[in-house]
Specification:
Structural class: alpha+beta
Distance between the termini: 48 Å
Helix content: 10-25%
Order of helices and strands: EEHH
Strand order of the largest sheet: 1-2
Radius of gyration: 14 Å
Number of helices: 2
Strand content: 5-15%
């Protein structure tokens, strides 16, 4: 299977798309986060993208 044919989901925290990985083969339906970092951030309430916090001048 080619990389472009792998299933893709959007991360529940950052919203970025991420593709299926072999380690998620048995639990792909339950996977909601693209990384451990996003999984830790899910309950902290810090869902702001850093570029949105910078001032414009």
């Amino acid at each position: 299977m080619k990389k472009s044919e792998l299933p893709v989901k959007a991360c529940a925290v950052c919203g970025l798309p991420f593709a299926w990985r072999k380690k998620w083969a048995r639990c792909w339906a339950e996977v909601r986060y693209c990384s451990e970092r996003c999984q830790r951030r899910r309950s902290s309430g810090r869902h702001v993208i850093p570029s949105q916090t910078a001032g414009n001048g």
